[in-house]
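Batch manifest, entry 17 of 40.
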Amino acid sequence: MRAFMRATASSQRTRKIRYAGRGVAKGKSGANRVCYVLYPEFGTVALVAVFGKNEKADLSAVDRRAVAKMVDAFRDELRDVASRGRGRGPNDG
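Output type: structure tokens
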């Protein structure tokens, strides 16, 4: 599996890989695209989008802007959780 950088408007950590599972036609056009983002400072990987190459070749500019906002909002949420301490949820006392 080959991963490569796919930049969004505000993040250089969004990545896209090609995945062809069993029973999927061989070749690049028959595979799925999986977009994900790495948050190494939090030890987290978040799934952003999954789509078939037959559906679209890539995310549109509008999609990329929406992903960038989501990526930044999720990073902010992870920072907030980390600042409160790991494993400290509302029922942890």
